[in-house]
Amino acid sequence: MAQFLNTTEINLLLERLIKDAKEQLILISPYLKLNDRLRELLKDKSGQMAEVRIVYGKQELHDSERQWLAGQKHIKISFCKNLHAKCYLSEHYCIVTSMNLYDFSQVNNNEMGIGIHPTQDKMLYNAAHEEVRRLVRISEEAINPSQKTGQAYESSNGQEQKKLTAAELATHYGKATHEIYGMLVKEGYLTLHNGEYELTERGQKFGEKRKGRYPPYYYFLWNKPKK
């Protein structure tokens, strides 16, 4: 059975959710400005679990926020256009709420939400989990400035060239990442089957599928477009 939460309870249970997460931790918040306590808890997850993901969507991150996140290599950051939902999920608990991961909101605003235990309301938790995964899938990876983008490969003439991620292709063409995937499907480079993208025979000539650490646990690298 879902549990009603007020502002104080949301803050308390959010900290517990982050602290207790062992397998997955997904934080979805349009506005993002982490307080010191949440930073400490998130930093402590380094090396403890396979997946920590934050999805935001309303404005450019402040420089200090971006720099701190860039130093947390275990945290995957992505941007979701038109995001308004706020949901914080682990394998143990889910909070659906009005409260952003924004320090001002956590201290000054009157918020409310519901808490969901997967053991007490499995159908409701699974529905929230499915929607969270959908938002992750449609979000665009925010490039970590501390990491190099793209990966190199050896061409037939021995020269090192660069393959591009979908996010880098999006930058090249001035489009959103999800639009690039739509173009790749339309042009016959990718096909969508059971919710997963696969390379077509044509696509295998220009791209390759790699195993990833984060949902959807795979990504593609593509030959750099000719100028």
Describe the structure.
Helices cover 31% and strands 30% of the residues. With 227 residues, it is an alpha+beta fold. It has an eight-stranded mixed sheet, sandwiched between helices. The longest helix has 17 residues, at 122-138.
Helix count equals 7
Q: Give the biggest beta sheet.
A: 8 strands, mixed
User: Percent helix among the residues?
Assistant: 25-40%
Summarize model confidence as the mean pLDDT: 85
Q: Count of DSSP E strands?
A: 16
Give Rg in angstroms.
19 Å
Order of helices and strands: EHEEHEHEEEEHEHEEEHHEEEE
Strand order of the largest sheet: 1-9-7-6-2-4-5-10
Keywords:
16 strands, 227 residues, alpha+beta, globular, eight-stranded mixed beta sheet, 31% helix, four-stranded antiparallel beta sheet
Summarize the entry for a quick read.
With 227 residues, the chain is of the alpha+beta class. Helix content is 31%, strand content 30%.
Describe the secondary-structure layout:
Elements (H helix, E strand, L loop, with lengths): L2 E4 H14 L3 E5 L3 E2 L2 H8 L7 E6 L6 H8 L4 E5 L7 E4 L3 E4 L3 E2 H6 L3 E5 L5 H17 L1 E2 L9 E4 L5 E5 L1 H8 L3 H10 L3 E4 L2 E4 L7 E5 L6 E6 L4
Parallel strand pairs: 2-4, 3-8, 4-5
Antiparallel strand pairs: 1-9, 2-6, 5-10, 6-7, 7-9, 11-12, 12-16, 13-14, 15-16
Helix pairs in contact: 6-7
